[in-house]
């Protein structure tokens, strides 16, 4: 059987991604006891994260050298702006937050660091850097969504059920699989030093994913003491 590059990546990220499932924010989401104020913080930060993340798909489309890849990136862009972010807009309306307010959320330190890293690495390199930057994001949320869908009652939970349904859905799985297929195609025939760099991006973004869960759990913005003195 063919050796896929994502099998190699999986060996690297599996322990990091398993730790997401043990994280109190993710556990609370799946078991339904997560504090809604923490979820609100995640939702607002994630909305502006997804705006920057969408830029990466637009960049991928611009860097693509064939129409199939261009179309895949365009679909990923549309899927994020339309399907994924609609989940956030619906949750925001439950909290009485307008779309405009949501869009004007101030980015927390972790959100700024994560999106800046992805945009920097993607602008510097070729299309492989763009795909490597978005891979952990799409794939790990689908991994979490599918894992939480197995928790009894998670899919039916009256507040968090929609989250679990969307991230475990066939539509979101198709978006994650598009990213997986893209990286496997792009990795074919690349020299080891380039593969190692792609791997490094996927590992770093996986650490950023953990930091994002932590940021939501602790409702973090920027260091308070320093901020007060500015
Ligand atoms: C931080 C983060 N990472 C990944 C995803 C899934 N697109 C997300 N919504 N937010």
UniProtKB/TrEMBL annotation:
UniProt keyword rRNA-binding, yes or no: no
GO molecular-function terms, A-Z: thiaminase activity
Coiled coil start-end: none
Taxonomy, superkingdom: Bacteria
Entry keyword set: Hydrolase, Thiamine biosynthesis
Catalytic activity: 4-amino-5-aminomethyl-2-methylpyrimidine + H2O = 4-amino-5-hydroxymethyl-2-methylpyrimidine + NH4(+); thiamine + H2O = 5-(2-hydroxyethyl)-4-methylthiazole + 4-amino-5-hydroxymethyl-2-methylpyrimidine + H(+)
EC number in record: 3.5.99.2
UniProt domain Thiaminase-2/PQQC: residue ranges: 10-218
Assembly behavior: Homotetramer.
Family note: Belongs to the TenA family.
Protein name: Aminopyrimidine aminohydrolase
Organism: Virgibacillus alimentarius
